[in-house]
Design brief:
The complex is a heterotrimer of chains A (about 300), B (about 325) and C (about 300). Chain A has about 300 residues and is an all-alpha fold. In chain A, helix 4 packs parallel to helix 11. Chain B has about 325 residues and is of the alpha/beta class. In chain B, the strands form 2 sheets. Chain B has an 8-stranded mixed sheet with strand order 6-7-8-3-9-10-12-11, sandwiched between helices. Chain B has a 4-stranded antiparallel sheet with strand order 2-1-4-5, covered by helices on one side. In chain B, helix 4 packs across helix 5 and helix 6 packs parallel to helix 7. The chains are: A mainly alpha (about 300), B alpha/beta (about 325), C mainly alpha (about 300). At the B-C interface, helix 2, helix 4 and helix 6 of B face helix 9, helix 10 and helix 13 of C.
Chain lengths: ~300, ~325, ~300
């Protein structure tokens, strides 16, 4: 109501024409139609493979962090596709290896956020009342601190290590997940089919798991993909500031920090790690967009 | 029907919507003539093509996916379909106006009602802002709303009052033809009566011609001089109020009258027309109504019916009348 | 209406209290403390311990927190042990530079995002739409600090057009502003687009067209004003992001604002400064969001009515 429809209503709908598909298959079908999303999936797949394989393919000590003064500061060439840094280390190999850090931090941080935030949100949405209020106020407080300042705060306090990086980046997203989870629970909770389920005698727990949870999944999934990308960027930003994974680990952000001193004459050192970040995050974002469109095609129209 | 006196002349209008699922044949060749100062009711169920016809008259059919495939639409002698966008913008709101079904969403929430009425005036007549505002206030009074409420926002009005504002906007420039698309469907019955009364009064006052689109035969009886019944994109019966109500000819029209509950005979069973209107993507071969028609024969099912003039004013499109002895149950007089 | 404003302002207080506790708590957890820095490497252990006691660092957390808070409500955030200057004073000195950056960044963002978003919505599903979406996605995928570095490489080092360091010339703001702005633009553009898409479908636009209003005016006047509301939200929340982005941008461009102040203070283990700066920045961000909320009332008369009660 209230919207001008593009096509007049008909007595018979065209639903007979479509074969019945399971929900998951339907989502996958829609997803496949989005060429950008599929491309993103492929690229991400390649990056993930790189990340896993590089632990076995390369020897950390000799290839990633060993300093070969002779070969320092060489521009891109056949032997060193992305050139070498000020310690003679091959940048190409370092970037490939560095994918491990970015991906693992991004994924773990978001999983942590999701776990904590999701639980808070579901509790808040389902039980309401004082509990909901308390949780939401708490989230408000945390989200009023600009994300990066909070992450900086935590990282400074606990020192730089992969684990702390994951935690600080994760903490930043907890309020968002709590809100999304709560909203999802609240929308679904009030739907008529839930009332119908109660009316037919299902227990509360069963309703929560078999009805509310699956239907809340869509917006949560969308948040997850959005957040992984920004988590990776936040992590590399922290590393850039020197608050992340300590040298000589080839994390993309710290590589950029190192390259900064040489930006005038050796700008390639700044170029490649950055491009790596962009490609990774972009592919994740495209997947996220594709997922969102696939799950709720109404949004696209 | 003399040409001079026609405010509207539609000939063979065909409008299709080209969608991914197929071509929706919304309007399949209709002819409509309306004399000045007359009111005609365009009756039919949802999906018959009434709204599309109305939108076509203002060239507001959403494009894509709508396409006006062919036809002539003459407004006071001028062919609308040949006009440029700029010319159309001059005509809309001034020579021809339309009001829509849902008053709750028809008004822009961030502008006052006075502003929205005045906008129409300033668009079409070269008057200074103050004059336009004053006339807007007068229009509000005309439709029964105190003038000082011109500075209020739409959310401060009830549904019935909103619809009056919509009417005020439509008539602000003394339009020649007003198309009302189910203007009272979304309103309470009591408010419905008020709005209809208002429309009647304004129609007289401004000498405006009216096309009243509705599925409610009662409204037609109240407000209109003529009736046109639409089904699956065609006008299947047309005539004066007397013709169609008392000398009903088409089986579908009969079905419409029959499906009204009978207050006098409470025991009588409800008689809906069985079946559903055909899918406009997939219309039947012969007469579109034949699948549901109690009188249909093989000829009806295989061949499309042609318009048949029973009198100067009364047209019906039904192959059953090929047999001159045929008549439907209702009415009885031929 | 004023009652609403006052109640919102009052609501800020408990939030700020909570924020300050959290920040204080976290910063306090950092290993090592200022005494080590003051003391230097020459002092004896015993002396260090004595100084620590005198300065009150051995007191329990809550007591130290209360001491801090009682200062804060008086506007006294203490004195930096590293620079010996008043925290509040230093912050206020550096704030204008960041405000300048955040505002110009927001202007840049709006100039890019709004036209692109409107075009994408009006020409939905055409190349204009997909192109803008891709651009927006790209914008969300580029780290702000890297964009800044890239700008420096291209416009400063290779082309030599614009300065890259500091705040000396009027031209200095251009690259930093574009950097901050581009980051914001991506999200703002997407919000503009989805908001316009919603509005474009509304019935009241059809009423306007039936009146004879030209398509351009329908979009610009009738549609846009309604689409503005979610866009305002984004701008408000983006300000917080802009402040964060300022941290990175100021570092890259050596811009003398509070972002760099915080980073430098962290490197100097200047806990007093860090705590104070983060708290003040949060306060600033919250006030901006409040202002944006109030702006709603001017755009949407329905909300104005609600607030007036």
């Amino acid at each position: 109501m209230g919207k001008t429809s593009m096509v007049p209503e008909t007595g018979l709908t065209a639903s007979k024409r479509y074969k019945k598909r399971s929900q998951l298959a339907e989502i996958w079908h829609n997803f496949k139609k989005n060429k950008g999303a599929v491309l993103g999936l492929i690229i991400l797949g390649i990056i993930v493979v790189m990340a896993i394989v590089s632990n076995f393919a390369f020897d950390y000590d000799t290839q990633i962090i060993r300093q070969i003064v002779r070969e320092r500061l060489q521009g891109p060439s056949l032997k060193h596709p992305f050139g070498t840094d000020q310690y003679g280390r091959d940048i190409f190999l370092r970037i490939l290896y560095g994918a491990r850090y970015s991906l693992s931090i991004g994924i773990v941080a978001v999983m942590v956020s999701l776990a904590i935030g999701g639980v808070f949100g579901i509790i808040a949405g389902y039980f309401g009342g004082f509990l909901e209020n308390a949780i939401m106020r708490f989230c408000d407080v945390f989200s009023s601190i600009p994300a990066i300042l909070l992450a900086i705060c935590i990282s400074t306090a606990f020192g730089g290590s992969t684990l702390i990086l994951m935690v600080s980046v994760g903490v930043v997203s907890v309020p968002a997940f709590a809100r999304v989870a709560r909203a999802a629970v609240m929308t679904v909770r009030d739907q008529e089919y839930i009332e119908a389920a109660y009316a037919s005698g299902a227990s509360r727990l069963r309703i929560m798991f078999s009805h509310i949870l699956p239907n809340s999944l869509a917006p949560i999934m969308v948040q997850v993909t959005m957040r992984v990308g920004s988590a990776i960027i936040t992590a590399s930003s922290l590393s850039f500031l020197g608050l992340g994974i300590p040298a000589p680990a080839p994390e993309w952000g710290s590589m950029l920090a190192e390259g900064r001193s040489f930006i005038r004459d050796y700008s390639y050192m700044t170029l490649f790690p950055g491009i790596a970040i962009v490609i990774t995050v972009l592919s994740i974002n495209m997947i996220g967009d594709g997922l969102r469109d696939a799950m709720d095609p109404k949004l696209k129209r | 029907m003399k040409n001079d006196n026609l405010v509207l002349n539609i000939e063979n209008l065909v409008v299709h919507y080209e969608t991914e699922n197929g071509i929706v044949k919304a309007v399949n060749g209709i002819d409509l003539k309306l004399n000045k100062k007359n009111a005609i009711g365009l009756v039919g169920e949802t999906g018959a093509g009434k709204t599309t016809t109305a939108l076509a008259m203002l060239r507001l059919v959403p494009d894509p996916p709508g396409v006006i495939k062919s036809g002539v639409i003459e407004l006071d002698g001028e062919n609308i379909l040949k006009k440029s966008i700029k010319e159309l913008e001059k005509i809309r709101g001034k020579d021809i106006s339309m009001i829509f079904q849902d008053p709750m969403t028809a008004l822009n929430p961030v502008f006052t009602v006075g502003e929205q009425i005045a906008e129409s005036i300033m668009l079409h007549e070269n008057v200074p802002t103050d004059d336009a505002n004053m006339r807007a206030k007068e229009m509000l009074e005309m439709v029964g709303i105190p003038g000082h409420r011109a500075n209020d926002y739409p959310h401060q009005f009830s549904g019935g009052m909103k619809q009056r504002v919509v009417i005020a906007i439509a008539l602000a420039c003394h339009t020649k033809l007003l198309i009302a698309d189910e203007p009272t469907t979304a309103l309470d019955v009591t408010i419905q009566a008020q709005v209809l009364e208002l429309m009647n009064k304004l129609k007289e006052e401004y000498q405006t011609s009216l096309i009243m689109i509705t599925h409610d035969l009662g409204i037609v009886a109240e407000v209109c001089d003529e009736v046109a019944v639409m089904y699956a994109g065609r006008i299947i019966e047309q005539g004066t109020l007397k013709d169609v109500f008392n000398k009903t000819k088409h089986p579908y029209t009969e079905g419409l009258f029959n499906s009204l509950p009978n207050v006098n005979n409470r025991k009588a069973k409800l008689q809906p027309i069985p079946g559903l209107m055909p899918d406009p993507i997939d219309l039947p071969l012969g007469c579109s109504f034949s699948p549901r028609c109690p009188y249909a024969n093989d000829n009806c099912r295989e061949n499309k019916p042609v318009p048949r003039w029973i009198s100067d004013t009364h047209m019906v499109e039904c192959s059953a009348y090929d047999d001159s002895s045929f008549h439907i149950a209702r009415g009885g007089k031929k | 209406m004023y009652k609403y404003i006052i109640s919102r302002l009052l609501l800020l207080i408990p939030i700020m209290l909570a924020v300050s506790f959290i920040v204080f708590f976290i910063v306090d957890l950092a290993p090592g403390d200022v005494v080590d820095i003051i003391a230097g490497t020459e002092m004896a252990e015993a002396d260090i311990a004595r100084i620590r006691e005198e300065m009150g660092f051995n007191d329990p957390l809550l007591i130290r927190y209360f001491r801090y808070m009682s200062g804060l409500v008086r506007g006294d955030l203490g004195v930096s042990y590293v620079t010996n200057r008043d925290v509040f004073e230093v912050y206020m000195l550096r704030l204008p530079a960041t405000l300048q950056l955040a505002t110009s960044g927001t202007v840049v963002a709006l100039l890019i995002a709004i036209p692109l978003g409107i075009t994408a919505a009006v020409h939905q599903n055409t190349w204009r739409d997909s192109g803008s979406m891709v651009l927006g996605l790209l914008g969300l995928s580029i780290p702000t600090f890297w964009l800044g570095l890239l700008m420096i490489i291209i416009f400063s080092l290779k082309l030599g057009w614009l300065p890259s360091i500091g705040n000396d010339t009027p031209l200095s703001i251009i690259l930093p502003a574009i950097t901050v702005g581009s980051g914001q633009a991506a999200l703002t553009m997407r919000t503009t687009r989805s908001s316009m898409l919603e509005v474009v479908r509304q019935d009241y636009l059809r009423t306007a067209r039936a009146k004879g209003v030209s398509e351009k005016v329908v979009i610009r006047k009738h549609a846009f004003k309604n689409a503005l509301i979610p866009i305002l939200t984004v701008i408000g929340t983006q300000f917080g992001v802009a402040l964060g982005g300022a941290v990175m941008t100021e570092t890259v461009f050596a811009w003398p604002g509070i972002g760099r102040l915080i980073v430098d203070s962290i490197n100097n283990r200047d806990t007093q400064m860090v705590t104070g700066a983060i708290i003040l920045t949060t306060m600033l961000s919250s006030i901006v969001i409040l202002l944006i909320d109030l702006a709603y009332a001017f755009v949407d008369p329905r909300i104005k009515a609600r607030y007036a009660k």
